[in-house]
Specification:
By secondary structure, the chain is mainly alpha-helical. About 45% of the residues lie in helices and about 0% in strands. A two-stranded antiparallel ribbon has the order 1-2. The chain is elongated and about 70 Å long. GO terms for molecular function: DNA binding.
Length: about 325
DNA sequence: AACCTATTCAACCGCCCAAAA
DNA sequence: ATTTTGGGCGGTTGAATAGGT
């Protein structure tokens, strides 16, 4: 049996809200509250659907809402929580005072997804693409693996090329310096010519084949910080502790441009030392926020949310902020 | 200056679920 | 027990804007 529409579609205005409408709605709610959304537009003198009023109020007019840019801490929180609960935007937004599920969802879809992809991390599973490929490869016969690698190269070629060959004028100078460890293949960066691009592709292929052959390998040139319990102050969680979800640690340092080129800690969580207990703490906190009844619901991203043993590619912080052209 | 493309984000849609009738 | 209703949620759309050619 279908539902009757929540309002007469013919008689309601749609689209952008005008300041006058906002005023009407705000002042009505200030006086009468939000008890019955169906009656609110009628009583407030608005030619709007009740649902539309509710949305306008909850997503925009509510006085406790924060407008403007997401902070680095907020972004970290979103990514951490997303790796645990998936696209449960309302749940994630509940951890970010002043942010709505719509805000969080939009920010994820327009910014964070791309950032993660640019880091070589699958935004759905929060695992590195290389590991996903390796996981798939374990189910295939060797000849199919070769095809898989070729197909994967096709899929990720542009992003990887960008990451590996992006022009960074000052990068060459930094090569003699100390801070940034090299890109995946290491070595001096030279603005790419055709031959360099070919070399890059060779490096990508090599990386893929290594990942596929040795799923647990560590990426070249940088020993992963297996001790690395970088702490992050996770809003809503009483103590500061190393947050590691889906096997990663998104460290305390900034995801954004603040500070001295800081970036998410890419320290690897080995699964033995920093996973279980912290996973439990984080997960417990989130579960506490869930409704009793939603608790049993499937986690949308599925299955193995606390899987560990994941490795991130080592990518300079600039690239984290400007992942893909 | 004009046009085209990409990005952002407010708003809408349709489904789900719990509470009320 | 069944139906109706209201509210919440996640996915999607499209207008506005920014940036590039």
């Amino acid at each position: 049996m279908g539902r009757i529409p929540c309002c007469e579609k013919d008689n309601v205005k749609r689209g952008q809200w005008t300041p006058e409408e906002d005023n009407k709605l705000s002042s009505y709610i200030a006086q009468h509250g939000t008890r019955n959304w169906r009656l609110i537009p009628k009583n407030a003198g608005l030619q709007r659907c009740g649902k539309s009023c509710r949305l306008r109020w909850t997503n925009y007019l509510r006085p406790d809402l924060k407008h403007g840019q997401f902070t680095d801490a907020e972004e970290q929180t979103i990514v951490q929580l997303h790796s645990v609960v998936g696209n449960r935007w309302s749940l994630i937004a509940a951890q970010l005072p002043g942010r709505t599920d719509n805000d969080v969802k939009n920010h994820w879809n327009t910014k964070l997804k791309k950032k993660l992809s640019g880091m070589g991390i699958d935004p759905v599973t929060h695992k590195p693409f290389s590991h996903l490929m390796a996981e798939i490869a374990t189910t295939l016969a060797p000849p199919q693996v070769a095809h898989l690698a070729e197909a994967a190269l096709g899929c990720f070629k542009d992003e990887m090329l960008h990451l590996l060959t992006k022009k960074r004028i000052d990068f060459q100078h930094q090569q003699s310096g100390t801070t940034q460890s090299g890109n995946m293949g290491g070595g001096a960066y030279v603005p790419h010519k055709h031959d360099d691009k070919d070399n890059t592709m060779e490096k990508i292929k090599l990386g893929f084949s290594r990942a596929i052959q040795e799923p647990d390998m560590q990426p070249p040139n940088k020993p992963w910080d297996t001790t690395g319990a970088t702490s992050v102050n996770f809003p809503g969680v009483s103590s500061t502790f190393p947050v590691s979800v889906s096997g990663y640690q998104y460290g305390s340092s900034s995801f954004g441009n603040e500070g001295e080129g800081s970036q998410w800690s890419q320290s690897m969580c080995t699964g033995s030392t920093c996973t279980a207990e912290h996973h439990i703490q984080l997960h417990k906190k989130i579960e506490d926020d869930m409704d009793e009844d939603t608790r049993g619901k499937d986690m949308r991203n599925g299955s193995d949310i606390f899987s560990s043993d994941c490795v991130l590619w080592d990518i300079p912080s600039d690239d984290l902020m400007n992942p893909t052209v």
